[in-house]
Amino acid sequence: MRHPMRLAIRDDDTSYFTSPEQLERAWNGLIGQIPISLAVTPNALEPFHLGDADRYYQSSESRALRDNPDLVTWLRGQISSGNISVLCHGYTHEYKRVSSRRLLPEYVWKPYPRLANETALAKRHLESALGTKVEIFVPPSNAVSRAGLEALRPHFPNVNATVPLRRLADIRMDSISAYMRRFWYQASYGSPNPHAEQIAGVNLLPSFSLSRGASWKSLLERLECCSELGADLIVAVHYWEMDEALRDCLKRLVEYATRSGSQFVHCRSLFQDAAARGPAKWKENRWADSRIS
């Protein structure tokens, strides 16, 4: 095993509608023990029936993060202490319903002109409200179209999401080798490419989603895959989904890191380290080493 493996925790969906008490309750003492990267929505629509695709809906009026002074004060304090870092998680996080069970995420259904404008507003709002630089973007539902990538590039050089093998027409590839690399990892390891890539001019790091009902077994398999391939791992959760099973997975993750000598870091550290190695290093992995690409 490579030592130390680096692990980052990403918690999605903090917005105007979140209270500090919800975050503290969800993390149950881990804030301050390990660094946590919060993916924050700057101008969110209020969600109802979270996690239930059939009944889910959102309010028609968005609310700005800065209008929740209790949350803003708490976030600023946690950022200042180094406990928390902030990522941008969409603009309104608005879904478009296309069927009774299918919802299209914000950075898939919105057209480019709107995304370009709202992406700039999102970055400006977060940095102004929280007094911190925000350079990493997390697409809602980890989904981004070609138009979304074009809108992100001038404002967010770094994107944290898992680019799937589907929606090939929506993704602007730098070359067919990028798609083939993902295909090779999926076929060889049964999981997405865990390494950093450059796609459409943005730096992409993948994440592993740990949702309600997830098991330690599935997380351990991903950990072992990343360890074998010499990759770091970002684990993505939602504070509103946090139940005993998820807390148990995170507790085991902390124990795993302690035993293995692995290190918890903020997401930004993984991007900074990868970028510092230069553009060529972003595509370094076993696929490249195999000289098939």
Note the total helix count: 11
CATH first level: which class?
Alpha Beta
Rounded radius of gyration (Å) = 18 Å
Topology pattern, helix = H, strand = E:
EHEEEHEEEHHEHEHEEEHEHEHHH
Q: Roughly how many Å apart are the termini?
A: 26 Å
Percent of sequence in beta strands: 15-25%
Regions with little confidence, pLDDT below 50 for 5+ residues? 278-293
Named at the architecture level, the CATH assignment is: Alpha-Beta Barrel
How many beta-strand elements?
A: 14
Number of domains: 1
Classify the helix fraction into a percent range. 25-40%
Which properties best describe this structure?
293 residues; four-stranded mixed beta sheet; alpha/beta
SSE layout:
Layout: E1 6-14, H1 20-27, E2 36-40, E3 43-48, E4 57-64, H2 69-81, E5 84-88, E6 96-97, E7 103-104, H3 106-109, H4 112-130, E8 136-137, H5 146-152, E9 158-160, H6 176-189, E10 197-199, E11 202-205, E12 208-209, H7 216-229, E13 233-238, H8 244-260, E14 263-264, H9 267-276, H10 279-282, H11 286-289
Parallel strand pairs: 1-2, 1-13, 1-14, 2-5, 8-9, 9-11, 12-13
Antiparallel strand pairs: 3-4, 6-7, 10-11
Helix pairs in contact: 4-5
Describe the overall structure:
This protein has 293 residues and is α/β, with parallel strands linked by helices. It has one domain (6-289): Glycoside hydrolase/deacetylase (TIM Barrel). The protein contains eleven helices and 14 strands. The chain has helices at residues 20-27, 69-81, 106-109, 112-130, 146-152, 176-189, 216-229, 244-260, 267-276, 279-282, 286-289; strands at 6-14, 36-40, 43-48, 57-64, 84-88, 96-97, 103-104, 136-137, 158-160, 197-199, 202-205, 208-209, 233-238, 263-264. Strands 1, 2, 5, 12, 13 and 14 form a six-stranded parallel beta sheet that branches. It is globular, with a radius of gyration of 18 Å. Residues 278-293 have low confidence and may be disordered.
